[in-house]
Design a protein that fits this description.
mainly alpha; 2 strands; two-stranded antiparallel sheet
């Protein structure tokens, strides 16, 4: 691993760690599903960064099962955070639409 790649991982781990810790602290303070989805996306995204680092260092090995030639664990850590973000945005749009319709009546 080059020094530039290692520096990039350190930056990702530091900033992702701050975002994940803040998300965990906020987790107990809110009950709104959109915020919970956003926080879950942040935490799973950080877990994906840690997993990717462990794979690159050879500590974790992405084994079977394989889906379309991609290890399932890698696929999940890549796909789940954006799905949580999409769900959070859909819930926010639904709430905004519901609020606007209530104001018009």
């Amino acid at each position: 691993m080059t020094e530039a790649a290692l520096l990039l991982y350190i930056i990702k781990l530091a900033l992702g760690g701050v975002a994940a810790v803040l998300a965990i602290l906020l987790w107990g303070k809110t009950r709104y599903a959109a915020w919970l989805c956003l926080m879950a996306g942040l935490v799973v995204g950080y877990a994906g960064i840690v997993y990717s680092l462990l794979v690159d260092f050879g500590i974790a090995l992405p084994n079977l099962p394989v889906v379309f030639g991609i290890p399932l664990s890698t696929l999940l850590f890549s796909a789940v955070p954006p799905l949580f973000f999409i769900l959070a945005l859909i819930l926010l749009l639904y709430r905004a639409h519901k609020t606007i319709n209530t104001m018009l009546l």
